[in-house]
Specification:
The protein is an alpha+beta fold. Helices cover about 20% and strands about 30% of the residues.
């Protein structure tokens, strides 16, 4: 897998670390794809700013997956396509004044197919349109998945400067568990939360219990912790917890924020989309963590084990983090 990504690094002029970071952690098939999701909508004659489709470059590669389910990719594609237009947009890094902040990912309801939008380098924001990206992704999907044995691939050269690319790849969704607990997510709340979560590829962060830090060991991010946006986008909540509640006072594991963002994106795409809560299991270097998703309606301390310290982090929509404090559970 990584060798193929290195090859694509040369194509898109991405760093090896950036390409490696695009590899998906394993994410259970829980949502059926409806026939309506399989009906493509026509594209406008003018896709907006960007290079003509004949100028884009498509490379299929089996290292990004073989036997990818075309219906799954149509479903993932439909998520992005429904919100696109030929109105000019800018695409750039997080916290820049742009229309679309990367990373951007579309994942099918069954978790088997994923699209990633990437940008070459750290230069100025790219000018394009949603339709320009969607048309390139559509051509990539048909050429590689439909017509080349269900292969993954990449399309590059999107946008006025040609700095954007789209990957399509096969995904294993086995770590995602959607729970039969109906949730009432606020409109666009989970989408906004994904935009607000940190998504840095490096460095790896040490996630650990409050008691571990109190004992003098380095801990970058306290757990258990809940992350949610400020109102009115607060009706979607991501949590980071130890898998084993008995380790709530001793847990230490590592992960990058990009890996947290990937897990949260899988939960939103596979569970929140059907109005369910969910868990991403066996997360972290030592597989000792789980990422949770719910609608933020339960009391913060309701499911916390005795003696735990639960941290609540509010993420304003501008992406700047501020901590609401550490809550000590008394049970």
């Amino acid at each position: 897998m990584f060798a193929a990504l290195t090859c694509f690094a040369a194509l898109l002029a991405l760093t090896i670390d950036q390409c490696k970071a695009l590899s998906l952690p394993p994410v259970a098939r829980s949502l059926a794809i409806t026939p309506a999701a399989l009906i493509p909508m026509p594209f406008p004659a003018s896709p907006g700013p960007g290079k003509p489709l004949e100028d884009i470059q498509i490379q299929c590669n089996p290292s990004l997956g073989t036997g990818i389910n075309y219906a799954s990719c149509l479903d993932a594609f439909g998520i992005f396509k429904r919100g696109t237009s030929n109105i000019p947009i800018t695409v750039g890094q997080r916290y820049e004044p742009v229309t679309m902040s990367i990373p951007v990912r579309w994942i099918s309801a069954d978790g088997l197919c994923v699209f990633d939008i990437v940008k070459r380098g750290t230069g100025p924001a790219e000018r394009t349109s949603g339709y320009q990206i969607a048309r390139a992704a559509w051509q990539l999907m048909n050429q590689c998945v439909r017509d080349s044995g269900g292969q993954g691939g990449v399309v590059s050269g999107i946008g006025q400067s040609g700095s954007l690319g789209v990957f399509i790849r096969k995904n294993n969704p086995d770590n995602v568990q959607c729970n039969e607990e109906p949730q009432t997510y606020g409109r666009d709340a989970c989408t906004q939360l994904l935009l607000s979560l940190p998504a840095a590829v490096q460095p790896r962060r040490i996630f650990g219990a409050y008691a571990v830090r109190a004992a003098g060991q380095r801990v970058d991010e306290l757990i258990p912790t809940y992350y949610a946006n400020d109102p009115p986008h607060h009706q979607c909540r991501i949590g980071i917890w130890p898998i084993d509640e008995e380790e709530v006072m001793t847990i230490v594991d590592t992960a990058t924020w990009f890996e947290v963002w990937q897990a949260a994106t899988a939960l939103v795409g596979m569970c929140a989309r059907k109005g369910l809560s969910g868990d991403f299991l066996n997360f972290g270097t030592n597989r000792g963590l789980r990422i949770t998703l719910d609608d933020n309606s339960d009391p913060i301390l309701e499911n916390a084990p005795p003696g735990a310290n639960v941290t609540v982090v509010h993420l304003p929509v501008d992406g700047q983090r501020k901590k609401n404090g550490t809550i000590v559970v008394a049970k």
